[in-house]
Amino acid sequence: MSASVRNQFALWWQFTRRELESRHRGSHLGVLWMLLTPLLEFAIYATIFGVIFGGRYGVVKGETQATYALGVFLSLTLYRLAAETLASAPGVILAQPNLVKKVVFPLHLLPLAALGGIAFRGSVSLMLWTGAYFVFGPGLAPSALWMPLLLLPLAAMCVGGGWLLASLGVFLRDIGQLAGPASMVMLYSSAIFYSAEMVARKSEFAWSILRFNPLLHIVEGARRAMLWHETPSLPGLAYAWVVGALVLAAGWFSFRKLRSGFADVL
Length: 266
Prior knowledge:
Structural class: mainly alpha
Oligomer: single chain
Low-confidence stretches: none
């Protein structure tokens, strides 16, 4: 590893730690919120959709409330990685005007530092889910080996989307205002509380639209691999990989092209 790469990694880690610390600074519960927030969110949605509305994914026979709850928890954890990126990325560069004016500072690390904090919180949620999975879940199967291939395109979309939104957010301030509504649309269009099979079965028109959401294929594939012991849809997985690669390339290209204009705007 070259000295330049080591220095950039150290700088990224420094800013990631600062982002995590600043998020909970002054809070009485501190980092406990990283445990409480996903648990509270899961409890609300699992109660509403699982208990009150009696929700089920309807993919395998013998599905229980515990299995459905685990599916909701896993789906929400993956969704939160994308939603938090969407919410934080547009303001990342705007929040550091002093660093923008330093010619030698690697500004591309700022979105990556924000994503580092998001990924750390996501890993905490995944650890909570894993604990619940071994207590209430159906047990591990070889299909679980598909999970890395499902998480990698999601990571690519988050990194590329972070660069893209961070660079565009400097010039188009309305992007930050659109994050909330966009996250809500993403929540209900990504098969969090229902299965893709259910949509395709009940409404061909809805499926003709929702099938172009790559997060839906990742979420559905994760449930199939971990809960239903099935192979994820290979066309859906391939589509997610293609979208992830395109978003990553578009984000890097946009950030490099627009970076020179950041200082003028700020």
